[in-house]
Specification:
heterotrimer; A alpha/beta; B mainly alpha; C mainly alpha; B: mainly alpha; Arp2/3 complex 21 kDa subunit ARPC3; 6 helices; globular; C: mainly alpha; two-stranded antiparallel sheet; binds adenosine-5'-triphosphate; binds magnesium ion
C-alpha cells in the first residue's frame, strides 16, 4: 500500500528505567507512517507499555530513565517537546478505562482536555457533541461512570482523545475486560474512527485474533525489549514466531496446521474471512476431522450445589438476578459467560453470601446456604476476586495463606503443615519466605487461590482468573486449576475469554440480563449463532472454518479440535 | 498544589478519609465510642506525598464528611485534620518511602512526630478553636479533643506504621531474594 | 451510592449559579459561626427556611439527615449542660437563677439563652447546607469554587474526590466482605491493639490499592494536558444572572452585619441581661 509521511520515528532507541539494572527497550528502529494501523504484540513484560509511553511522552516526562538514540514525533525530537505538546499529536486510551475516566459524567470527561486548554465553553460544547456523535455515546452524556457498561466507558475514552483532533491514537490493551461482542464492536469502532479522521492507530494487545477482526497494516512483535518482527499480519501468521514468542495463534490457524495444511503468505491467513483454501485443502480438513471419532466428555451427575429461583436486587435498583436455576455437579470445571453487566459477578457474590438480600433457595448438598454467615459459607465455597490486590492483606506469603486457618483457631503445627501442602500444590513453596510485594500479578493470583484452598472448600468460584495475562501465564494458571480440579474440587470460572471456555470448561452457563439462557458444552454454545448473539459472545473462528469446509456438525468439529489440542499439548 | 500527582493524591486521600470516617469504626473499651483510623491514612499520605497533600486531602475529606453528615460544618475540626497532615508531612520530610526506606530510625521519627502533632492538633488547636469560635465549655472540648487525639495517636502509630512499612517493603529492591526448595 | 443528595428539580434556587450559591453559603456559615447575636440567628433560621421552601426540596427527602441532626443537636446540648451548667453565666457575666436542681446543676436564664443560641446555630446552618447540596449539581461545584477564586488545582481535587468516593466505597465493601469470609471480626472481645491491627488488615489493601491508582490517574490527566495552563475553563460553568447578584449580596450583608455588630457592640454576644 501507499505510505504517508513518517509520523513516529525511532532510531536506535534504547531506554532504561532509573529503578532497573538493565534497559527495558534495546535498539528500537521503527517508523510508523501517517494513516497506518499497527498492532504491537508480545509476552507480558516485554516492554510494550514502555514503548507506548515513549510515544505519548510519559517517558521521559513522567517516568525517569536514561534514553539513548532518537525518537521523533511529527518530525520533532520527543524529548525537546513537552508532554502536552506531544498530546496534541498523540492521544492515548489507557488499559484501565475506569481510571481513564476522570470526569464526573461522560460530558465532562470528553471535555477534559479542552477545559485544560482553556477553550471557551460554546466551542467546547460543540466539539464534545461532535466527538460523542462519532463514537455514538450522545445519549449518555449525563451518565456517571458507575452507571455505564465497560464498552460505554471505552467509547467515552476514545471520544476524550478525539475532541482534540489527534493524528495518532494509541490503545494499550483496549479489549481486556470487555465481553467478546463488545470487544469486536470496539475494534470496529476504532477502525471506523480511523477512516473518518484519517488518524494513525497503534494497538497493543495479547488477543491477536480479536484485533485482526479489522484489517491491520502491520504487526510488530516484541520480545525482551527488542523488536523481533515487523511486517504484515500475513507474513507473521505464516511463520512460527508467535508460538516461539509465547503468544497464542488464531485458533483456525492452529486447526489448519493440525490438519496438515501449510500456512503461507499467499493464503492471506490474517483473517478467517480472507484465508484462501482450495477444495483439496477443505477435503483435508474434513479428513482430519473424521480421522478420530469425537469423544464427548462424560457429564457428571452428582449434584453439589442446587440453586432454585434465585432473585436479587441491589438497593434502589431493578433486579439484577431474575430467577436463576442452577445445578452444579461435584468435580465439574464450569464456566459462566455473558455480556458486561449481565450479573455474573453478582451471582458469585450472592452464592458466597457477600450479598444477603436474596430470595429463592440455595442448597449445598444438604445444607441451606441461605442460613450461613459469610464466614461459615467461606468454609464451603471459596470466592477468588478478580483483582488479587483486593484480597491480600498480609505482607508475607505464609501469613497470607495461613490467615483464614489462624482465625479459625487451628494450632500452629497443623497450620504449618496445611499451608506448606497448599503451597506445594500452588507452586509457591520455593517462594515461601518471600514478601508478597516481590511477586508478579499471576503469582499473586495464585497466592489468593492458595489462601482459599487452605480452607478446603468444596467449590471455588473464580472471577476472571486470566484477565490481562499473556499466553504463558494463562496456561500456567489454567493448568494449575485443572490440577486442583482433578483432586476433586469443583471449579466455577467467570470469564470473557472464549478460548479459555473452549479449552478448559466442560460445561458452560450463558448469562444474559440476570437469567441463564443456555447450559451446555462449550463447543455447542460457541457454535450456536442464536445464543452467541443474545449473550454478546463471539463465535469461535473454528465454527466458520467448519462451515467453510462443509462440515455439517460444527460443534463436533470444535470438540474434536479441543480433544486433539489437549493431546498434542500434553 | 504543584504537580498533577499532588492534585490526584489529595483527592484520593480525601476519598479515603471520607470512607474511613463514615464506614470504619473500631469498637473501643469505652461504651458507645469508636476509634476512627482516618488519622493514620492522613499521616501515611503526608509522609508519602508531603505536607501539602496531607493538608488538602485531610481538609477536603473531613469537609465532605461534615457536609454530608448532618452535624453542620465544624471548621475547627476540619482544619485541624488538614493541619495534622501538614505537621506530619513537615516533620517527616526526608523519609523516602518511595525508595523503600522505613527502618527503625524512620519509625521512631514517625512515632514522635505523630505524637507531637496529635497533641498539638487535637489537644490544643481544636479545643482552643472551639472555645474561641463556638464558645463551648472548656472542659467539654478538652475531653473531646483528648479522646480524638489519643485514638488518633494509637491509630496513627500502629496502622500508619504498618502502612508505611508495607508500602516501603513493596518498593524495596528484589535482588536479595532467592528461590528455596 | 449517592454521595451528595442532589435532586434535579425546577426552582428559583436550582437556577442560580453554583458560584454565587457557594459564596453565599460560605458567608452564611462563617457569619452564623462567629456570632452569638440571637435575633440575627433567628433571622438567619427563618431565611434558611424560606430558601428551603423556595428550592422546592421536600423534608421527606432529607429524613435520614434531619433525624441525625436532631440527635446530634440534643446530644450536644446535653453534653454542654453536663460539662458546664453555668457556661452561660460565665459568658454573659450575670446570673439570673431560675431553679437549683441539685449541686452544681442549676438552670439560669443565661444558660438557657446560651444553649438556645447553640441550637439556633445548628438550625440556621443545616437547612442552608441541605439547600445548597440539594440544588447544585455536583459537577458544577468545582467550577464554582474556581470561579470564586479558589485555585483550580484545589477545586479539581474536590471534584476528583467526589468522582472517586463511590469507587472507594464499593471497593472497600468488597475488601471487607472478603476479609470477613476469611474470618476477621472486629466486634469481639479482643484487646484494643489487636482490634486496631485487625482494622489495619481490613484497610491495608484498600489504601495501598488507592495509592497505585494515583499513578494511573495522574498519567491519564497529564496525557490530557491537565495543569499545563495558568487557568482552565469548565464545561459545567454557567453565566451570572440577576438572582446571582442578589444571592451574593445576601451573603455580603450577613457578613458585614455580623462584623459591624461585633465591632460596635464590642462583643459577639447579644446580651439582654445588662
Ligand atoms: N515505572 C517503572 N519503573 C521501573 N521499571 C518498570 C516500570 N514500568 C515497567 N517497568 C519494567 O519494564 C519491563 C517492561 O514493562 P512493560 O510494562 O512495558 O511490559 P508490557 O510488555 O506492557 O507487559 P504487559 O503485557 O504485562 O502489560 C518490566 O520488566 C517492568 O518491570
Ligand atoms: N454494588 C453495586 N451496587 C449497585 N449496582 C451494582 C453493584 N454492583 C453491580 N451493580 C450492577 O449490577 C449489574 C450486574 O453487575 P455485575 O458486576 O454482576 O455484572 P457482570 O456480569 O459481572 O459484568 P462484567 O462482565 O462487566 O464483570 C450491573 O448493571 C451493575 O451496574
Ligand atoms: Mg502493558
Ligand atoms: Mg464481573
Amino acid at each position: 500500500m501507499e505510505r504517508g509521511e513518517p509520523i513516529i520515528e525511532f532510531r536506535d532507541f534504547s531506554f532504561q528505567y532509573n529503578a532497573q539494572m538493565e534497559p527495558t527497550l534495546y535498539n528500537i528502529d521503527l517508523t510508523i507512517h501517517k494513516g497506518e494501523k499497527v498492532l504491537v504484540a508480545g509476552p507480558s513484560g516485554c516492554g510494550k507499555s514502555t514503548l507506548v509511553n515513549c510515544i505519548n511522552g510519559l517517558i521521559p516526562f513522567s517516568y525517569k530513565g536514561e534514553i539513548k538514540g532518537s525518537l521523533k514525533i511529527n518530525g520533532k525530537e520527543s524529548s525537546s517537546q513537552s508532554i502536552s505538546a506531544i498530546s496534541n499529536t498523540v492521544g492515548t486510551v489507557l488499559q484501565d478505562s475506569d481510571a481513564q475516566f476522570i470526569g464526573m459524567t461522560v460530558l465532562e470527561d470528553i471535555a477534559f482536555a479542552l477545559e485544560n486548554e482553556c477553550v471557551v465553553k460554546e466551542e467546547m460544547v460543540e466539539r464534545v457533541h461532535r466527538a460523542a456523535e462519532i463514537v455514538d455515546i450522545s445519549d449518555h452524556l449525563g451518565y456517571a461512570p458507575t452507571d455505564l457498561s465497560g464498552g460505554q466507558k471505552q467509547r467515552t475514552g476514545i471520544a476524550g482523545i478525539l475532541v482534540d483532533d489527534v493524528e495518532v491514537m494509541l490503545f494499550d490493551e483496549p479489549l481486556a475486560n470487555l465481553d467478546p461482542a463488545t470487544g469486536k464492536t470496539a475494534m470496529e469502532l476504532i477502525d471506523d474512527v480511523a477512516v473518518k479522521t484519517g488518524a494513525t492507530v497503534i494497538v497493543v494487545e495479547h488477543r491477536i485474533e480479536d484485533v485482526l477482526h479489522i484489517e491491520m497494516d502491520r504487526i510488530i512483535l516484541m520480545e525482551n525489549g527488542r523488536i523481533v518482527f515487523d511486517g504484515t499480519p500475513d507474513a507473521l501468521l505464516s511463520s512460527n514466531l508467535l508460538i516461539e514468542g509465547g503468544i497464542r495463534e488464531p485458533l483456525y490457524i492452529t486447526a489448519l496446521k493440525y490438519a496438515g495444511i501449510e500456512i503461507t503468505e499467499d493464503r492471506l491467513p490474517h483473517s478467517i474471512r480472507s484465508v484462501v483454501l482450495t477444495d483439496a485443502d477443505k477435503a483435508q480438513v474434513r479428513k482430519w476431522h473424521e480421522s478420530t471419532p469425537t469423544i464427548k466428555p462424560e457429564p457428571k451427575t452428582d449434584t453439589i450445589l442446587d440453586i432454585k429461583n434465585l432473585e436479587f436486587a441491589y438497593e434502589d435498583k431493578p433486579p439484577t438476578l431474575k430467577g436463576v436455576d442452577l445445578e452444579v455437579h461435584r468435580g465439574e470445571l464450569m464456566a459462566i459467560v455473558g455480556r458486561n453487566g449481565a450479573g455474573k459477578s453478582t451471582l458469585a457474590k450472592v452464592i458466597c453470601r457477600f450479598e444477603k438480600d436474596c430470595t429463592g433457595s440455595m442448597m449445598l448438598m444438604d445444607d441451606d446456604l441461605m442460613k450461613l454467615s459469610i464466614k461459615e459459607c467461606a468454609d464451603r465455597v471459596g470466592y477468588v476476586m478478580q483483582n488479587p490486590n483486593q484480597m491480600i492483606s498480609k505482607t508475607m506469603i505464609f501469613d497470607e495463606i495461613a490467615l483464614g486457618l489462624k482465625l479459625r483457631g487451628l494450632d500452629e503445627a497443623d497450620i504449618k503443615e496445611k499451608v506448606e501442602s497448599v503451597m506445594k500444590i500452588c507452586g509457591l513453596y520455593e517462594f515461601r519466605n518471600w514478601p508478597i510485594s516481590a511477586l508478579s500479578y499471576g503469582q499473586k493470583k495464585r497466592v489468593t487461590i492458595a489462601s482459599i484452598l487452605a480452607l478446603d472448600p468444596d467449590i471455588i468460584i473464580l472471577d476472571e482468573p486470566t484477565a490481562g495475562q499473556d499466553f504463558r501465564h494463562y496456561t500456567d494458571i489454567m493448568e494449575f486449576l485443572k490440577d486442583i480440579n482433578s483432586r476433586g474440587i469443583t471449579i466455577i470460572m467467570i470469564t470473557h475469554d472464549m478460548h479459555l471456555m473452549l479449552e478448559y470448561a466442560e460445561r458452560a452457563l450463558v448469562f444474559t440480563d440476570g437469567q441463564i439462557i443456555a447450559d451446555d458444552t462449550s463447543a455447542a454454545i460457541l457454535t450456536s449463532p442464536d445464543i452467541v448473539r443474545k449473550a454478546s459472545l463471539k463465535e469461535t473462528s473454528l465454527y466458520h472454518l467448519a462451515l467453510m469446509c462443509g462440515i455439517d456438525e460444527p460443534s463436533e468439529f470444535v470438540q474434536h479440535f479441543i480433544n486433539y489440542d489437549r493431546e498434542v499439548r500434553s | 498544589m504543584k504537580t498533577v500527582r499532588n492534585v490526584v493524591a489529595s483527592a484520593i486521600l480525601a476519598a479515603l478519609v471520607f470512607v474511613l470516617l463514615r464506614f470504619v469504626a473500631i469498637p473501643t473499651p469505652f461504651p458507645d465510642t469508636t476509634l476512627s483510623i482516618y488519622a493514620a491514612v492522613v499521616a501515611f499520605f503526608a509522609v508519602l506525598f508531603g505536607p501539602a497533600v496531607g493538608f488538602v486531602g485531610g481538609f477536603l475529606g473531613n469537609l465532605l464528611v461534615d457536609l454530608t453528615a448532618g452535624w453542620g460544618v465544624w471548621w475547627t475540626w476540619v482544619i485541624v485534620t488538614g493541619l495534622y497532615g501538614l505537621f506530619v508531612g513537615l516533620g517527616c520530610k526526608g523519609i523516602k518511602l518511595e525508595d523503600g526506606e522505613f527502618g527503625k530510625k524512620e519509625f521512631i521519627r514517625f512515632t514522635i512526630v505523630s505524637i507531637i502533632s496529635c497533641i498539638l492538633c487535637w489537644g490544643v488547636l481544636a479545643p482552643v478553636g472551639d472555645i474561641l469560635i463556638y464558645a463551648e465549655p472548656a472542659n467539654l472540648v478538652f475531653v473531646q479533643g483528648l479522646f480524638v487525639g489519643l485514638s488518633g495517636m494509637i491509630a496513627s502509630i500502629v496502622v500508619g506504621g504498618i502502612l508505611c512499612k508495607a508500602y516501603a517493603s513493596s518498593k524495596a529492591q528484589k535482588g536479595s531474594l532467592t528461590k528455596e526448595d | 451510592m449517592k454521595l451528595l443528595n442532589y435532586i434535579e428539580r425546577k426552582s428559583p434556587v436550582h437556577s442560580l449559579n453554583g458560584a454565587s450559591k457557594l459564596f453565599c453559603l460560605l458567608m452564611w456559615i462563617c457569619s452564623t459561626m462567629i456570632t452569638f447575636n440571637t435575633p440575627f440567628l433567628l433571622g438567619a433560621t427563618i431565611l434558611g427556611a424560606v430558601a428551603f421552601k423556595l428550592s422546592r426540596l421536600k423534608l421527606s427527602e432529607q429524613k435520614g439527615l434531619l433525624y441525625f441532626l436532631l440527635c446530634f443537636m440534643l446530644l450536644n446540648a446535653v453534653l454542654i449542660y453536663i460539662f458546664n451548667p453555668e457556661r452561660g453565666v460565665e459568658l454573659y457575666g450575670t446570673r439570673n437563677l431560675i431553679v437549683q436542681i441539685w449541686g452544681r446543676f442549676t438552670i439560669t436564664k443565661e444558660q438557657l439563652l446560651y444553649q438556645f443560641n447553640v441550637i439556633l446555630k445548628y438550625l440556621s446552618t443545616i437547612p442552608i447546607i441541605l439547600v445548597f447540596i440539594g440544588s447544585t449539581q455536583p459537577s458544577e461545584l468545582a467550577a464554582s469554587m474556581n470561579k470564586i477564586g479558589i485555585p483550580y488545582g484545589f477545586s479539581y481535587s474536590f471534584a476528583l474526590a467526589l468522582r472517586y468516593i463511590p469507587d472507594t466505597v464499593s471497593s472497600f465493601i468488597d475488601i471487607s466482605r472478603c476479609q470477613q469470609a476469611r474470618g476477621i471480626e472486629m466486634s469481639n472481645k479482643e484487646s484494643l491493639l489487636k482490634r486496631v491491627k485487625a482494622a489495619a488488615a481490613l484497610v491495608l489493601p484498600l489504601i495501598l490499592g488507592s495509592v497505585e491508582q494515583i499513578e494511573v490517574i495522574t498519567n491519564a490527566m497529564e496525557l490530557r494536558k491537565f495543569g499545563t495552563q495558568k487557568r482552565r475553563t469548565w464545561i459545567m460553568s454557567r453565566p451570572f444572572k440577576a438572582g446571582d447578584y442578589l444571592t451574593i449580596a445576601i451573603g455580603i450583608v450577613m457578613m458585614v452585619f455580623v462584623v459591624a455588630y461585633n465591632v460596635i457592640n464590642g462583643s459577639r454576644f447579644w446580651n439582654p441581661f445588662i
